[in-house]
Predict the 3D structure of the following.
Amino acid sequence: MLLSMTGFGEARTQTDKLTVGVEVRAVNNRHLKVTVRGTDPYPMFEAELEKVVRRHVHRGTVTIHVRVERQAGTVDLTLNAATLTTYLRQIRAVCDDAGTPEFAIPLLTGVLALPGVAPETRSPGSPPAEEWPVVEQTLTTALTQLNAMRREEGRAMGTELLALHGVITAEVSTIRTLLPAVTADYRTRLLERVRLAMGEAGATLNPDNLIREVALFADRTDVAEEVTRLTAHLQQFAELVHKGDEAGRKLEFLIQELGRETNTLGSKAGDVAISRHVFEMKSALEKIRELALNVE
């Protein structure tokens, strides 16, 4: 089944200490790009969140918004008393020596922020251990909802792609039936023009020359190879749509090949009726190309 690259998913988890909400939005992109916004420190851990996303999404621009509400509670922290005492004594001594003891109190208010006084509460190199499992599970649930929406849209896109595939297949079939008549019609028109010219000039028509000219025209306008390749590409296109499974890049390549063969067919056929069918094929291909841009 095809997957769309656009969708939305959200999830919310609540524990005794945390309330976590995650929103995931996805739009089309040739590659996977993940952007993280929300409560600190999670925008700093984009790489860890991207690993979770890659289990569910392979192409597209994915924006994650993480909201974490932490319940107030008692935190058991132990200050480094020796370091704190040293800072306090030094600050007072410096202010006394400078003759400005009144500056000591304002300076002491920031002493807890000095290095070594209070312990680090979390490692700067990894997500908070006490929160990460909850955030990861909430993100996974949101991505599951996102994929449900992507599958639903992909199903509708697959139906539309197959309908347009049917239009092109029908046009190719019609062109195949018209091809023999193109050469015969050219022979008739050429013979009529030559006979008229010969009659006015009083000359005699050489059948060999007429046959040679018709043969040259038939060779220039022979599109049997293009029709065969179009038929093969169309069959492969239908198989990809039915199979799905990250078909976007393969579909883009096939659409390019279909466009190339269609353009060659239109330029070589040399017939107004066939040109009309080629125009319909190009119109359907353009719609297919727009849809395929959103296929993962």
Q: What stands out?
A: The chain has three domains: 7-73+131-150, 81-113, 152-292. The chain has eight helices and four strands. The chain has a mean pLDDT of 82.
